[in-house]
Amino acid sequence: MALLELHQLEKAYDDSHVPAVRALTLHIARGEFVTLLGPSGCGKTTTLRMIAGFVKPTGGLIRLDGQVLANAANGACVPPEARGMGMVFQSYAVWPHMTVAANVAYPLKLRRTPRAEIDRRVDAMLELVGLGGFAKRFPSQLSGGQQQRVALARALIAEPRVLLLDEPLSNLDAQLREAMRGELIDLHRRTGVTIVYVTHDQAEALAMSDRVVIMQQGAALQIGTPAEVYHRPTQRFIAEFIGAANMLPCQVSGWSAGMAQIALPGVDAPIHAAHALDRTPDKPLLVVRPEQVRLHEAGAGWLDGTVLRRQFLGEAHEVSIETAHGVLRAKAGAIDAPPRGAYVGITWETGWLVAG
Ligand SMILES: Nc1ncnc2c1ncn2[C@@H]1O[C@H](COP(=O)(O)OP(=O)(O)OP(=O)(O)O)[C@@H](O)[C@H]1O
Ligand SMILES: [Mg+2]
Asked: Are residues 221 and 331 in the same domain?
């Protein structure tokens, strides 16, 4: 059974015509790490704040472990402090006048936990987040990543039933953000806590989550594992939002449940694409990821093109190739990528078909 259930959840703020969140249904299992991913303004924070209890839904229902937390139908709404949630925000707001230990101890103090138990649990929690030697320091004496770990420790020490994280890494520089990603994955594994994570960073979502909810204008467009939303996007928006994608307008010449036969004008080759469609869309689009593109001698591929640009990425090159079907991006080797001006042949591994 799901630990946290959102059913047809909706929030329409008083002063706006379109709801910030609409018809959002999502079941989250105990111990799961689920990420809400979408562009700015798509309703991620609003959803998280409804789960936390700071925002009252205007439609639908939230249940935790079978117990109703909010029900728009009868106005029921359990206050935040009675929900057993932990929340960490983008601006991590650790108290500057308190030591690390005092910051982390705060939730237990509020609950009048005995002193000896507080000390024991704070020590254990600081070890868990890798801040063993930092108890007596003040936040100003810590790096951004360390401060963020204090905020996480403070949320975790109360043993929340669900941990809600709203872009907790966005204030950190790129390198630290990547390091913290790994630490969050480890922390999730060690504690087994259920996490709802909010980000607009697709790399973060793919790297950490058990499942990802792709949101656009308040609605969930696709819910799936990182591999599913990356390899089997259900819509053009998702294919373009996650990872890099070449989009080729095409025709479908043959059709079966799992595979479509693709016709590209001027191309005489048997091209196939996998899909999750139940009928031929009006404007079929073939999605080909840059890493699926294979480069050959000119004339030896399905189509030919001229290299417009070559960017060195360290572990590989990204090559942009001008073709009769638009500019295609390809990943090529760090050493053997064709130079600008080269005329090359192009094929790819099985593409993916979406509606345009
Ligand atoms: N208190 C509020 N009153 C009225 N409208 C609001 C309020 N809070 C958010 N909104 C609107 O609701 C929509 C969703 O906002 P929300 O903060 O949930 O987006 P988000 O996905 O978290 O975006 P971001 O990535 O920028 O943080 C936006 O159009 C926003 O302007
Ligand atoms: Mg937000």
From this structure: no
Indicate which CATH number applies to the domain containing 250.
2.40.50.140
Domain of residue 330, residue span: 244-355
Do 19 and 114 fall within a single domain? Answer: yes
CA–centroid distance, residue 44 to ligand 1 (Å): 8
Q: Is residue 237 part of a domain?
A: no
Helix axes of 144-156 and 174-191: crossing angle, nearest 10 degrees = 20
Going by alpha carbons, the residue nearest to atom 2 of ligand 1 is: 13
Residue with CA at minimum distance from ligand 1 atom 26: 40
Convert the pLDDT of each residue in 115-127 to its tens digit: 999 999 999 999 8
User: Measured in angstroms, how far is the CA atom of residue 45 from the centroid of ligand 1?
Assistant: 7
**Whole-angstrom distance, CA of residue 151 vs CA of residue 99:** 12
What DSSP letter does each residue of 142-208 carry, written as one string?
A: S-HHHHHHHHHHHHHTT--SEEEEESTTTTS-HHHHHHHHHHHHHHHHHH--EEEEEES-HHHHHHH
| Ligand 1 pocket check for 20: Cβ under 6 Å | yes
Average pLDDT, the chain: 93
Q: What is the pTM of this model?
A: 0.91
331 and 280 in a single domain? The answer is yes
